[in-house]
Write a structure and sequence with these properties.
Blueprint lengths: L2 E4 L6 H4 L8 E4 L29 E4 L3 H6 L20 E5 L11 H15 L3 E7 L8 E11 L2 E12 L2 E7 L1 H7 L19 H18 L16 E6 L5 H10 L9 E6 L7 E3 L13 H4 E3 L9 E4 H7 L3 E4 L2 H7 L10 H7 L1 E4 L25 H16 L9 E5 L8 H11 L5 E5 L4 H13 L4 E4 L4 H10 L2 E4 L9 H7 L3 E4 L4 H5 L7 E2 L12 H15 L5 H11 L5 H6 L6
Parallel strand pairs: 4-5, 4-9, 5-8, 9-10, 10-14, 14-15, 16-17, 16-19, 17-18, 19-20, 20-21
Antiparallel strand pairs: 1-2, 3-15, 6-7, 7-8, 11-13, 12-13
Helix pairs in contact: 5-6, 11-14, 12-17
Bound molecules: adenosine-5'-diphosphate-glucose.
């Protein structure tokens, strides 16, 4: 039995802050086998099949064979641009560590909640697989068990299931998920402290990836209106972020090598390149993979934690072992291959494979101000100018701010960490706080930043409030009650906040990075303030000045017809997943 040290997932601290590094811990892992299976039958539903699958706002960065070779990849290969998600009636299995509304720490959960039903509506049979972190009251025990083997130790997982909005929602049950998280907040899916991983995250996600590969083969799901039985082997796995990186490796080593899943494809989607899963090199032995995969994981960086020098990098393997690499906006795709800073040292790997950026959609039901249950009054584009001031007053009352429907109110919602530029925002507040405005900041994350938030009211009792909780109703009130939404992200793969804000008629003031310029038209549907320094160790005074300048620019339209015109242009846009699937260029 191999005993290996396990560290945690690390991003590139220098560029993006990343997470701190706990001391390496031990965990046992090696070898995997599937032992028992039961059959499950009997879920019903109805849907029709059509055959449209066209995705918009897409740009592909083609594999740059010459550049990749120049940068040391002798085997740089050109990937076929053959469609693997185009066409209808496919069986698509999304695999993700979070899936809203059952589990969510941020945008990844949102995407897994919204995209699968849109694909199902386009005629595909769609499943999501995510861990069962809680006793979800709407998911039934299938009684199907699978045993996976890690380090000569067997782990029995159980599948739970529900069928909603045309999608099979499958949950993998094991104490490494439920017992660790249960009773805690949704923000604890990866570790007890923001930015720090559980010591056994490699074990957890190894178990999860193995279970996910079994789900389409063994779950006998009857949706009742077109689809029944197991999904079978001709499936497309869409696996998301580093937690699922082992999936294509096991797909090849355990299945394809044994004649199973011969036509299955593996599509990797990057939601955030800053979290890569960098671990000690010796941990490779625990993954139960043949040595032929070692080179895909092999990674050198200049950091001393968790250990100096050679490491394994889960995301690197996820990219290299995939059939296709996607990310969540075209602008982000181009940033990822632009250099080591924005590609967080995987730029050269992505140059080798190529990457396609597709702008995220959003959940237009949750963020529809006509039916939003969290608002004191509902509104649409024709009534926004009357309703928003009422909501603003309710928000002010709730937060103990002076009630004044005419004062411009600026919001910020997001994780409190360097990616989101919350540190830049804190330093920029003096630049605009005296402009007769109010500011509301809602976020959770790094403890030091949460403390700063709590100080806001003391510092600016008449103008500012900070709320350091994960508070969905308040997020809805801010999105509708504010006039402007500040998004000072250092980098933002797509960003959902700006979409949610615009849908509610709140004007985004955002940096020019990732999906922000893909979704905001400067001076038309918002204000762009340029790209910021991505070095997370510093707050660049130039960026602080840029925030102040952009806020003043936005304030100049407040109270003028230009504001209502902009609100209208924001609100009439189609941000739905359906819209994304319907319009624009063909996906691949
Ligand atoms: N304190 C709080 N209370 C209530 N709700 C809160 C909250 N803080 C955040 N939220 C909600 O969480 C979500 C965050 O969405 P983002 O796109 O900013 O996510 P994130 O950066 O996690 O996702 C990553 O993945 C997504 C999906 O691909 C990319 O859009 C994004 O750029 C990338 O960083 C939004 O729905 C927002 O309303």
């Amino acid at each position: 039995m191999a005993t290996v040290s396990v560290s945690h997932t690390i991003s590139s601290r220098r560029f993006f802050g990343g997470v701190s590094n706990p001391e390496p811990r031990t965990f046992q892992g090696k070898g995997i086998s599937f032992l028992s299976r039961n059959q499950h039958s009997g879920y019903h539903g109805l849907r029709s099949i059509n055959n449209v699958d066209i995705l918009p706002h897409i740009r592909t960065v083609k594999p740059n064979t010459r550049e990749a070779k120049k940068r040391g990849f002798q085997n740089a290969r050109s990937r076929s641009s053959t469609s693997i998600i185009c066409g209808s009636g496919m069986r698509v299995v999304f695999v993700s560590a979070e899936c809203a509304p059952w589990s969510k720490t941020g945008g990844l959960g949102d995407v897994l909640g919204g995209l699968p039903p849109a694909m199902a509506a386009n005629g595909h049979r769609v499943m999501t697989v995510s861990p069962r972190y809680d006793q979800y009251k709407d998911a039934w025990d299938t009684s199907v068990l699978v045993e996976v083997k890690v380090a000569d130790k067997l782990y029995t997982v159980r599948f739970y299931h529900c069928y909603k909005r045309g999608v099979d929602r499958v949950f993998v049950d094991h104490p490494v998920f439920l017992e660790k998280i249960w009773g805690k907040t949704g923000g604890k899916l990866y570790g007890m402290v923001a930015g720090e991983d559980f010591d056994d995250n490699q074990l957890r996600f190894s178990i999860f990836c193995q279970a996910a590969l079994e789900a389409p083969r063994i779950l006998n799901l009857n949706d009742g209106d077109g689809f029944s039985g197991p999904y079978g082997e001709d499936v497309v796995f869409v696996y998301n972020d580093w937690h699922t990186a082992l999936l294509p490796c096991y797909l090849k080593s355990m299945y394809k090598a044994n004649g199973i899943y011969q036509n299955a494809k593996a599509v990797f989607c990057i939601h955030n390149v800053a979290y890569q899963g960098r671990f000690m090199f010796s941990d490779f032995e625990s993954l139960g993979l043949p040595d032929t995969f070692k080179s895909s994981f092999d990674f050198y960086d200049g950091y001393t934690k968790p250990i100096k020098g050679r490491k394994i990098n889960w995301m690197k393997a996820a990219i290299l072992e995939s059939d296709k690499v996607l990310t969540v906006s075209p602008y982000y795709a181009s940033e990822l291959v632009s250099g080591a800073d924005k590609g967080v040292e995987l730029d050269d790997v992505l140059l080798k494979t190529g990457i396609t950026g597709i702008v995220n959609g959003m959940d237009i039901q949750e963020w529809d101000p006509r039916i939003d249950k969290y608002l004191p009054v509902n509104y649409d584009v024709t009534t926004a100018m009357d309703a928003k001031p009422i909501i603003k007053e309710a928000l002010q009352a709730e937060l103990g701010l002076p009630i004044d429907r005419t004062i411009p109110l600026i919001g910020f919602i997001g994780r409190l960490e360097e990616q989101k530029g919350s540190d830049i925002l804190m330093e920029a507040i003096p630049e605009f706080i005296n402009e007769n405005i109010q500011l509301v900041v809602l976020g959770t994350g790094k403890k030091i930043m949460e403390k700063q938030l709590e100080q806001l009211e003391k510092k600016y009792p008449h103008n500012a409030r900070g709320v350091a909780t994960f508070n969905v109703p308040l997020a809805h009130m801010i999105n509708s009650g504010a006039d402007f939404m500040l998004i000072p992200s250092r980098f933002e793969p797509c960003g959902l906040i700006q979409l949610q804000a615009m849908k509610c008629g709140t004007i985004p003031i955002a940096t020019t990075t990732g999906g922000l310029p893909d979704t905001i038209k400067d001076g038309v549907t918002g204000f762009l303030m340029g790209g910021f320094n991505v070095d997370c160790e510093v707050v660049d005074p130039v960026d602080v000045g840029a925030v102040g300048k952009a806020v003043k620019r936005a304030l100049s339209i407040h109270g003028t017809p230009a504001l209502s015109e902009m609100i209208e242009k924001c609100m009439v846009q189609d941000f739905s997943w359906k819209g994304r699937l319907r319009s624009g260029k063909k996906f691949c």
